[in-house]
Amino acid sequence: MDYDSDSDGSHISATPPRDPLPRRPPQPPPKPPTSYKSTASTKRSSHLDIIFKLKKPSSSKHDKIEPVPEPEPIQQPDLPSPVGNFPFQIRRPSDQPHPISIGRSLETLPAGFFSTRRASFSKICKPSLNFEPETSPEITAEPKINGSDGLGSTKTCNKKLPNLIRGDAPLPPVKLQKRSEEGNFVRLNFNGYKRKFTAKGKKMNSYSYKSKYFKRSKRRVKSEVDTGSLCDEEGLVSEIKLQSKAEKPSRCESVEAAISAVRSAVSEENLVRLLKAIYGYDLFRDGQLEAIKMILAGKSTMLVLPTGAGKSLCYQIPAVVLPGITLVVSPLVALMIDQLKQLPPMIQGGLLSSSQGPEEAAETLRMVQEGSIKVLFVSPERFLNADFLSIFSTPNSTPNFVSLVVVDEAHCVSEWSHNFRPSYMRLGASLLRAKLNVECILAMTATATTTTLQSIMSALEISSTNLIQKAQVRDNLWLSVSLSSNRMKDMLKLMKSSPFLEAQSIIVYCKFQSETDVISRYLCDNNISAKSYHSGMLARDRSRIQELFCANKIRVVIHYSLPESLEEYVQEIGRGGRDGRLSYCHLFFDDVTYYKLRSLMHSDGVDEFAVNKFLCQVFADDTSSHSKVCSLVKELASRKFDMKEEVMLTLLTHLELGETQYLHLLPQLNVTCTLNFHKTSPMLLADKDTAVAAILKKSEIKQGQYVFNIPTVANSIGVAPGDLSNHLQNLKAKGEITYELKDPAYCYKIVKVPSDFCSLTELLTRWLLDIENCKVWKLDAMYSSAVFAVDTCEKTHDCNVAQQTTYLQERISDYFRGDNNLDVLDKMGQNSPFLRADIKVFLQSNSNVKFTPRAIARIMHGIGSPAYPSSIWSRTHFWGRYIQIDFKAVMNAAKAELMNFVGKDAP
Ligand SMILES: Nc1ncnc2c1ncn2[C@@H]1O[C@H](COP(=O)(O)OP(=O)(O)OP(=O)(O)O)[C@@H](O)[C@H]1O
């Protein structure tokens, strides 16, 4: 391939020097996609968040971590309504179409409000701490939920715990809670600690870790107290104090008795009694009681509550009441671990994840089979595993039958959500019923538009009468927005002013990994202690920062970049104020970032041409025998079809779960095996071993090593790839061979070869295009909300944060309600006089490279793709040059120029 570079003539451009952003009036609002039929989409994989832990520059006495005495309940003054000016003045240049200026500031919080909560980040990061999940073989098992040994004695202190969040509550002022009332779930964990470790002498594996977590937590707290490295003096140290308090039995109730009462009558009174017994809470929050009652009545339920509103409790209570297992499906291992840790002590939990070793997984499964796990967290990918499913296809009399399936982050089921995951498509009600024999499904999310809700509920067969939906945003979050031409400076200014200055826990969301490092360095240079947190970091470092960041205590959320959708915005601000206390969320946005994101929304898109090539390859194998396993090496195929791996998986999943089943997807495997023989000669071994004989037949010999494809060899001897892998493992154990596996691949069996490739190609392409348009629309809706919030404020005399909060809350609620009248701006240019001429020059200077219109449009928009990576193509003069022109307009221009070009060159 001849790659473009500035030296090959591609610098000759028709374009004049780059200009600032085009001055265009707002375009009429585009309509969201209308043909929402089936379930699936592509997902952008590169969303990056950072967490900056911030500290005031001057080290005050509060920065020192010392053993802290048991906190006295401190009466927090009510927070005044922040109606003052922003600490900075941002005015949009007059030539821009949406004049913005918010010259207001947030009123200062009462002095000392945050002062007792200061922590030093450098201490948090002490290398002596190790918070990685680890195996603690000596840990004893906790009592079973309905055992007589522990439950009766499961006690909670009679403390009143906060119950602040009400979906229907009016706007702030929000009362601040007393310090002694926060972080309560951890206290409960500590209450449970002692009982759990003395209950039974059983060993537990590391992933069934209620007990393990407590042990770890206790060790952690101890070591942190020893080293003075607490994240939050108030938080953890007070937990230690509370532990000893809780050990003294006070007014407590037997959980077992409360469970029995609910089993005999699912009344509000009995459920509140159980709530109190397990969690110590006096009242259910909005939506909780309704959801729990519905589930206990055996009705599949759709639950939409804001982030941090207490959705977990809605499955935890049914889990203790229902006789069988509660299976919770979660999209991320980190989320599963987090939820497992947060289970109250009397609920025995476990998890199965791909990051576990086989022994750990086997141990968890053993516990599942004997019925000692009450809540099991699994990833949706687990549903590809036949062995896993077979465990649950048992009659309801066995201890491991499933009573309830919880689909957490249920928006991932829908391709019209901001975060669709193809593996979630597998969670259709029909499969859950057929394979798990389960009747009741609980789907939970914090962010779903009406369209998303419809697709979730139809996939999971949840009746429209069983929808429980509350406000999407908690009313303890104050929302503000500003347009900024220098975000770094403006953010610094914001952080150095009240109330941001006083907040010790601040999250700053960025869009790009590199941005997180640059900004954290900038803040550190300006005496604000900050750390970046992103997917490029070691998991160990990430989890350390995450644990210590103490999510419940976050008071400020700053968006340094525009989120891609209102769903993403709502999810991210939801990290703040999870303890119910007032938190501030400020969004900086700018047009340059908007254009960049707008381009990125097209990075998953594919064309008919690529879909057709993909289908031909998928069904290319000899299909005479449908029991054969086919494979598609992810990296190779991704480059070949210029398609992201996630998009290929989306297509494969659709081919399995769409209207017609064309294939059956199997778990992914490393399919290329490189093998060496050691003891016996290959020929001799082949005489006694049919697998070895097949390997010799199907291998290529490279530098004396046998290289073969696992499914090909397995097919040739009529065994499953997994069985062949086990056989190789045995030969290795005997010292006969050594081998290495590589090339992760999608594996599948063909069920039916499509009779009409063209119509199937067309159908799939149209579907993917709808998804692409939907993403673009979501970004435009987010951008427009920010612009309008600023405009609204500008038009209002003496604008304040409360007004922006109200505007954004209304806008968010209109968006999620699926209001068709939602005004959405489209700032994109539709043409440029130089576009065609530039494409022509580009094609001439890369005449020996094959392009599709989409590939050219991506380069002109500065987006890399598997076949045209940015590492190579960003060198071209045209890279990102037309970012302000609508992607489709660039594609159309590219198509026209390609036709000209090919026409001219055609013989
Ligand atoms: N009835 C209640 N009274 C007081 N606190 C509660 C109540 N229900 C839940 N909480 C607390 O609220 C906090 C948030 O709950 P939870 O983590 O379940 O929220 P969530 O809705 O699942 O959030 P997310 O969407 O981010 O996962 C927890 O600390 C939990 O203990």
UniProtKB/TrEMBL annotation:
It is found in: Nucleus. Pfam families: DEAD. Belongs to the helicase family. RecQ subfamily. The keyword Ribonucleoprotein does not apply. It catalyses: Couples ATP hydrolysis with the unwinding of duplex DNA by translocating in the 3'-5' direction; ATP + H2O = ADP + phosphate + H(+). This is DNA 3'-5' helicase. GO terms for molecular function: 3'-5' DNA helicase activity; ATP binding; DNA binding; four-way junction helicase activity; hydrolase activity. Gene3D superfamilies: P-loop containing nucleotide triphosphate hydrolases. Residues 17-33 have a biased composition (Pro residues). Its main location: nucleus. GO terms for cellular component: chromosome; cytoplasm; nucleus. Residues 292-466 form the Helicase ATP-binding domain. The gene is LOC107916626. SMART domains: DEXDc, HELICc.
